[in-house]
Every structure is written in structure tokens, then in C-alpha cells.
Automatic annotation (TrEMBL):
Tree of life domain: Bacteria
Protein's UniProt keywords contain tRNA processing: no
InterPro entries (UniProt xref): Homeodomain-like_sf, HTH-type_TetR-like_transc_reg, HTH_TetR, Tet_transcr_reg_TetR-rel_C_sf, Tscrpt_reg_YcdC_C
Keywords from the UniProt entry: DNA-binding
SUPFAM superfamilies registered for this protein in UniProt: Homeodomain-like (SSF46689), Tetracyclin repressor-like, C-terminal domain (SSF48498)
Name of the gene: rutR
Protein known as: HTH-type transcriptional regulator RutR
Pfam families: TetR_C_3 (PF08362), TetR_N (PF00440)
Gene Ontology biological process terms from the UniProt entry: negative regulation of DNA-templated transcription
Domain HTH tetR-type: 10-70
Gene Ontology molecular-function annotations: DNA-binding transcription factor activity; transcription cis-regulatory region binding
Keyword Amino-acid biosynthesis: no
Length: 200
């Protein structure tokens, strides 16, 4: 049984994780240092090491929490729902993650670009199993004529790439659009794109 943490301990752990997210999402795992994370957290390095023994421990805890958040939108795809609306709702949920959790998206992207050294086993087990399960549902919908014929796995990849772009390439998007919030336009555009692709 894990020991009960005080409010100060809980707050300090959350502060360290938030600082780690900022540093890792900007510099990647290799570029990040405990000194920089401690500085971002407003704590001394020895104080940080009281809560986490290494930068690997901070990084691993962030990724493990992130994976659940990242997979929840796909888990929510309901096989008994109307096919087209279920898929459009999935697109909307994924875009919302990019809007609400941009640093988390960049952290995940950095991990993947490095060859997924920390979460490779999870990607080939938990993630693969979930994607295969939902791809089978999409294939049934397509075979039944509820949506247009489509490769289920590549449809999921397309949804990932088109929604996560707005977090991972935020600087580029905002450089082109100026100060405008890109997400209302992105939501309308992606709804139109996927509706056209998927309507029988």
C-alpha cells in the first residue's frame, strides 16, 4: 500500500510533473536536465530528488499518465452507435486533446520521434490491441455500407495526423493564421473532410 502523501508533498509532485512536461515537451528526453526541471519547478535539485530519483522517473510517470488520456477518445468509439457520427465525434475528441493538452501532444511526439524507447512495448501491446479492436468495428461499418469503403487503420492514422498537427505544429499554424484561434476553423474543416470521405 502506497504511503499517504501530505498536501505539500502532493503539490510538489504536481509542480515537478508540470515543470517536467514543459521541459520534456520543448527539449525532448535527451535535451532535458534535472537542473532545468528543478528551476522550472522553483525547487532545489535535492528537493526534486526527494520526490523523483531521476529524470527517467519523471518522464515515465508523465508518459504513463498521458497514454491513458491519449487512448480514451478511441476507447469511447461505440460500436452500437451511428457509424458516421461516432467517427466524427472521435475526430472532435482528438482535436480537443490538441487544443487542451498541446504540451502533452508534443511530449508524445518527441517520444515517438526518438523511437519510443520508454513506451515501445506499450505501443506494440496496449495501443495495438485497442487500434485493432476499433479497426475491426470500422471494417464492419464499411462492409455494412454504413460508411464508405475505407482502410480502417489508415483512417485512424489520418485522424491522428490531422488533429495532432494543431498541437505539434502550433507555432507554424499560428505563424500562418496570425493571432486567430485555429481550432474553430479546424473543427469545421475536419468535420467537412471526414464527412465527405466517410459518407457512403
Amino acid at each position: 500500500m502506497a504511503p499517504t502523501r501530505t498536501r505539500i508533498q502532493t503539490r510538489n509532485r504536481e509542480t515537478i510533473l508540470a515543470a517536467g512536461l514543459t521541459v520534456f515537451s520543448g527539449q525532448g528526453f535527451r535535451g532535458a536536465t534535472l537542473d532545468e526541471i528543478a528551476r522550472q519547478a522553483g525547487l532545489s535539485k535535492p528537493n526534486l530528488l526527494y520526490y523523483f530519483p531521476s529524470k527517467e522517473a519523471i518522464y515515465t510517470e508523465l508518459l504513463e499518465g498521458l497514454l491513458d488520456t491519449w487512448l480514451d477518445p478511441l476507447r469511447a468509439l461505440d460500436p452500437s452507435g451511428p457509424a458516421l457520427e461516432e467517427l466524427l465525434a472521435y475526430v472532435e475528441r482528438k482535436l480537443s486533446l490538441s487544443r487542451d493538452f498541446p504540451l502533452e501532444s508534443r511530449l508524445f511526439a518527441n517520444e515517438i520521434l526518438q523511437g519510443a524507447p520508454q513506451i515501445g512495448k506499450i505501443l506494440s501491446s496496449d495501443l495495438k490491441a485497442l487500434v485493432d479492436e476499433k479497426a475491426a468495428v470500422i471494417k464492419i461499418w464499411a462492409d455494412d455500407g454504413q460508411i464508405a469503403p475505407v482502410d480502417p487503420h489508415h483512417l485512424i492514422f489520418s485522424i491522428w495526423s490531422l488533429t495532432q498537427h494543431y498541437a505539434d505544429f502550433d507555432v507554424q499554424v499560428r505563424a500562418v493564421l496570425g493571432k486567430a484561434d485555429p481550432f474553430p476553423g479546424a473543427e469545421a474543416h475536419l468535420e467537412q473532410v471526414f464527412r465527405r470521405i466517410l459518407t457512403p
